[in-house]
Design goal:
about 60% helix, about 100 residues, 4 helices, elongated, single chain, mainly alpha
Amino acid sequence: MGWWPFKKRNASLISEPHLRGSRVWIQDLREICERCYDSRSHGQGLVLEIQNEWRGAHSKGDIEGLLLDGLERRAKRLLESNDKGWEECLDDEAFWKP
């Protein structure tokens, strides 16, 4: 009888890898920058590290081209900024929108 509530079930769990979306990548980039808001040079070093991560994810096919382009534009602006530009990027809400 199949109604017995304590019966073992053979449920198959499908384990799919979690792919990071655009919001997650942008949020991670923003958190890195905000942790280093007073040390632009240290923050730019961390931006280079996460940039390598998303480039690797793109080469594996985990990130689409449009997302990579958006991340690269943000990274370029952050890496080329001076102290004042760094603070402006951190304060600009439109800069962080996906």
